[in-house]
């Protein structure tokens, strides 16, 4: 046992990076373990060919399709900040009804053990930390808020404003999509077209590195160790308490003890880590007596509709400003 911090956080993405900021400066020794390194600021950050064709910032590893048995390159980004380095910085809250049971053709999807009101204070804190711009009171599906948005809605280019007005004329309720960018007075945002799906060269996107990890490191008590692969979780003799982690870093295998271990490696890699942590007490994977770890994964799906207006061009610079829940 080379080191024994109070808390080890595995992963520096939205979950791990934000938690590190919440724990910083509280007299605890916190160690963040990140599989990747810092994403470089370079011209390729703003190159569609580099980002979408060359997949410059995606992992080079290949996963296996469980149905077809074919290898594929996943949309995973091993960097400080994780997948938030290339996300669109949208911050929609779940709606109150999203926590309720849902009847559907396949049966009943159970309700959550918590409610919207339980999470609401944390939504408010996140919006402060991540520079969220928005406007409340327009979308009829939104839940109650304890605080207003910390920043006004992002500007809407003329073409999108006209589209919004046409939606309104049909009785719909388009609203300003909550976006986390540093667009405030004196902020770093330059209002460029390379935001959604691109890394930000200007530290102006509310990603987990910029708004989570870096403030945590500055506040004290938090250490970041990059290029570290967590091989498995270690437990005590009962198998019911995690006591540390086994890692690979710079060609060395290291064991790190910890009072608390937080697994924040994303939906797939967190499950894979628990499965890799199998033992005599947990032969199918740590905490996997249900055999459900790694199953029932629901990915962030997009259905894309494209329309062509033969009478007009669309000169919009910043694309992601409007949403609609009707």
Query: Which structural class fits the helix and strand makeup?
Result: alpha/beta
Total strands: the figure is 15
SSE series? EHEHEEEEHEHEEHEEEEEHE
Q: What would the average pLDDT be, to the nearest integer?
A: 94
Largest sheet, in brief, is: 4 strands, parallel
Radius of gyration: 22 Å
- How are the strands of the largest sheet arranged? 10-2-1-14
First CA to last CA: what distance? 55 Å
Give the amount of beta strand, in percent: 15-25%
* Total of helices: 6
In one word, what is the shape?
globular
Low-confidence stretches: none
How helix-rich are the residues, as a percent range?
10-25%
Report on this structure:
With 326 residues, the protein is of the alpha/beta class. 20% of the residues lie in helices and 17% in strands. It has six helices and 15 strands. The chain has helices spanning 14-23, 48-53, 116-129, 158-169, 208-219, 267-276; strands at 7-10, 30-33, 63-64, 71-72, 102-104, 107-109, 132-133, 175-176, 179-180, 222-225, 228-235, 242-249, 252-257, 260-263, 322-323. The strands form six sheets. Strands 10-2-1-14 form a four-stranded parallel sheet, with helices on one face. Strands 11-12-13 form a three-stranded antiparallel sheet. It has a two-stranded antiparallel ribbon with strand order 3-4. β11 and β12 (242-249) form a beta hairpin. The longest helix is centred in the middle third of the chain and has 14 residues, at 116-129. The protein is globular and about 70 Å long. 29% of the residues are buried. The mean pLDDT is 94.
């Amino acid at each position: 046992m080379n080191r024994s911090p109070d808390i080890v956080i595995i992963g520096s993405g939205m979950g791990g990076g934000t938690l590190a900021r919440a724990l910083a400066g509280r007299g605890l020794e916190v160690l963040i373990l990140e599989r990747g390194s810092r994403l470089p600021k370079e011209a390729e950050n703003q190159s569609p060919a580099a980002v979408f064709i060359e997949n410059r910032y995606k992992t080079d590893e290949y996963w296996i399709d469980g149905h077809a048995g074919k290898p594929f390159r996943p949309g995973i980004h091993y960097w400080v900040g994780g997948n938030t380095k290339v996300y669109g910085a949208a911050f929609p809250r779940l709606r109150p009804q999203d926590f309720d049971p849902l009847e559907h053709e396949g049966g009943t999807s159970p309700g959550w053990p918590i409610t919207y009101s339980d999470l609401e204070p944390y939504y408010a804190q996140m919006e402060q930390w991540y520079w969220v711009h928005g406007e409340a009171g327009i979308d009829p599906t939104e839940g109650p808020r304890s605080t207003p948005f910390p920043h006004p809605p992002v500007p809407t280019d003329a073409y999108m404003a006209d589209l919004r007005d046409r939606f309104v004329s049909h009785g719909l309720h388009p609203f300003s999509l909550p976006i986390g960018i540093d667009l405030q007075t004196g902020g770093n945002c330059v209002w460029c077209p390379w935001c959604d799906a691109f890394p930000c060269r200007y530290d102006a996107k509310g990603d987990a590195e910029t708004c989570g990890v870096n403030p945590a490191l500055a506040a004290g008590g938090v250490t970041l160790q990059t290029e570290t692969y967590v091989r498995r979780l270690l437990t005590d003799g009962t198998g019911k308490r995690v006591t540390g982690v086994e890692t690979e870093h710079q060609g060395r295998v290291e064991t790190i003890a910890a009072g608390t271990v937080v697994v924040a490696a994303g939906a797939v890699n967190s499950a894979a880590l628990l499965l890799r942590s199998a033992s005599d007490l947990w032969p199918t994977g740590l905490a996997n007596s249900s055999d459900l770890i790694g199953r029932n994964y629901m990915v962030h799906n997009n259905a894309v509709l494209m329309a062509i207006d033969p009478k007009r061009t669309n000169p919009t610079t910043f694309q992601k400003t409007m949403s609609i829940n009707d």
